[in-house]
Specification:
The protein has 186 residues and is mostly helical. The protein has helices at residues 3-12, 14-24, 27-48, 58-86, 93-103, 107-120, 123-149, 153-185. The mean pLDDT is 84.
């Protein structure tokens, strides 16, 4: 399959496509896809959110948003695979990285519908499609986890959910422990 077939396959037959991506590991294409999607998504989000949410210079906030999104792009497969290991999953970081990179093509739909919402002056439209896209992207991530960690669908769903629970617990601990220590010594 060439790049166009892989992109179409992510939408039309994700299981078979992610299996192939898992084997071929088209890392450069995954990065290039996200080099296009992430700035586009960031740019469109600034034009579809109220000014009060921007909180500063748009260019600085956009640059930080793009930077942190790329960090998350590299850390997400690591988190999924660490949790998948609890379920006996295999380690295929670059395969999962590539699959997630290709799955993010769904974000182009968000960009398109966000622009359409701006043209139609209907914010509800973008929120509705963002929720739909989130669930669609979640399903694609679960397929990607399953194919790359070589685990069952149930274990892939559990990996996806537990990854975010672990992330939330970790973030709460990072914030709560220092706050607790400060409170104890005051």
């Amino acid at each position: 399959m060439d790049i166009i077939d892989l992109l179409i396959g992510v939408i039309t037959s994700p299981q078979a496509t992610f299996k192939e991506i898992s084997q071929k590991k088209p890392i450069i294409w995954a990065i290039l896809i996200n080099l296009i999607i992430i700035p586009l998504n960031s740019l469109v989000s600034f034009h579809t959110t109220p000014e009060t949410y921007h909180g500063g210079s748009q260019s600085i906030v956009a640059a930080m948003s793009i930077f942190f999104t790329f960090i998350v792009l590299f850390l997400t497969p690591l988190l999924y695979l660490l949790v998948a290991k609890l379920f006996g999953g295999q380690w295929n970081y670059w395969g999962l990285f590539s699959a997630i990179g290709f799955a993010n093509i769904i974000n182009l739909f968000i960009v398109f519908f966000a622009l359409l919402a701006v043209l139609l002056e209907n914010q509800i439209f973008i929120y509705l499609f963002t929720v739909i896209s989130f669930f669609w992207l979640s399903v694609l991530y679960i397929f990607a986890i399953r194919e790359n960690a070589e685990i069952s669908t149930g274990k892939a769903v559990a990996t996806y959910i537990l990854s975010y629970i672990a992330l939330i617990v970790g973030l709460v601990a990072i914030i709560a422990i220092p706050a607790f220590l400060i409170f104890m010594f005051i």
